Task: structure prediction
Amino acid sequence: MMTGKDYKASLDDGRETYFEGEQIANVAEHPLLGQTVESAAKGYDRFYDPTPGAVGAFMKVPDSAAALREQVELHETVDLLTHVTYASIMTLLTAADRIEADLPENAARIRAYVDQVQKADLRITQCITDSKGDRSKRPSQQDDPDHYVRVVERRDGGVVIRGAKLHISAASMGHELMTIPTKSMKPGDEDYAIACMVPVNAPGVKIINTTYAPRHEDTRDFPISGQHHTPEGFVIFDDVFVPSERVFLDGQVELAGLFAHSLGLWERLGGLSGMVNSFDALVGFAQLISEANGLERVAHIREKISEMLIHATLVRSSLEAAIENCQITSDGAAFPDELYTNAGKYHGAANWSLMVRHLHDIGGGAILTAPGIADLENEHVGHLARKYMSTSQAVDGQYRTRLFHAIRDFTADAYGGWNAVTQIQAGGGLYAQRIVSRLHYDFERAKRAALELARMPEYIGKV
Ligand SMILES: Cc1cc2nc3c(=O)[nH]c(=O)nc-3n(C[C@H](O)[C@H](O)[C@H](O)COP(=O)(O)OP(=O)(O)OC[C@H]3O[C@@H](n4cnc5c(N)ncnc54)[C@H](O)[C@@H]3O)c2cc1C
Result:
């Protein structure tokens, strides 16, 4: 396994990665993106085990509901790169299980790859979302044929791919790009039905980074995003050669969607478990700021917080149900329940803006305008700022100001804006979650219930 130091050194591998118009010489040493590398390096040190052949505890495949719960809880405490590596491994194993019957050789290739990557202690990021061009057209019908990643050449020993995958979390910080189709494909789309693993430093891979990281020198006013931030990568495959042993799907259009669905399950489980904590934090902020404002007993404030805590509880219940109702595959791996995962993630994503609306309504304008920590420390105005930010003898001005900073950072500034869009889009938009929920919902049970209630039992099983 690698230590944090080994990991940082491993990123100096000739990768071509950019930020704000400049090529980055060494991502580990970049003043802003290097901070994300530092968080990931701490993850390496945390899970380091010198025993030969050891596999990081965060990569272990769960084999029961209890083990799945342990992994979910563990992953709430790790950095995003560590988390997406686990989600990628679980996606690959889920896909291997699902293609086994049609492509046993490819399933074996996937499992061998997973074994190798676990032992080499590499980090994987998930490249699924294509640039997509005109959304109403299929990949092979686009004006520009490169809007979905495709095979442009088949050679002895491998394929050459071209295209771009967008919004890829932590792409520049990992070692391997898990590159899979973004959706189901139809006959005619064969060149787009490509799933493969690409090293970040493969010739032709170019990554443009964006980040919500605060750009202020004094990050004390950004208590959340100033501590941890992860850039997204705009990953371009400019004719990249991929050797055959790294190709898991090539041309089988009928199996393309299966990779996207496998990733969706693990991405949405991660999204759902993240929301469980975030929803509690939103309730906590609403309660704390209402207390600091002296309004916690006022009826309309209590009602809003009650509505918030009901959503927080429903999101938590969905996660519980997804874990408890997990399915065990033929390989003995525990996969969360699709319906509870998707319905729970949908419920949380759809209600994020409502939670934030209530919090902003309860909190007041100082969410945006509370003075900075340095202002509170200023010898001329600091004591006055603290005096007027205080609301009573029991509520210290600095305490209340810091609460406002956290609320702004989490919900109303660069990271807050990132959160608002990400809750909805990451892991596929709301529509994708509705489709998968629909696929797994028991309509027969619903129809039976309706027919029984209507005293029409003779139609049960016939309509
Ligand atoms: C912060 C962040 C991190 C992310 N991380 C990753 C990552 O690590 N890896 C990764 O692969 N992706 C990642 N994503 C991408 C995410 O999965 C996509 O943003 C999401 O799937 C939506 O795709 P899109 O952005 O292309 O939007 P669009 O597909 O353009 O969707 C916009 C809207 O149009 C609708 N729509 C699109 N096409 C159709 C159609 N044919 N018919 C009907 N309606 C349609 C959608 O339902 C949606 O409502 C991330 C996104 C964000 C914001």
Q: What stands out?
A: The domain at 258-447 is CATH 1.20.140.10 (Butyryl-CoA Dehydrogenase, subunit A; domain 3). The pocket of flavin-adenine dinucleotide is lined by residues 126-129, 132, 135-136, 165, 167-169, 232, 421-422, 425-426, 428-429, 431 (CB under 6 Å). The first strand starts at residue 16 and ends at 19. The CA atoms of residues 217 and 304 lie 36 Å apart.
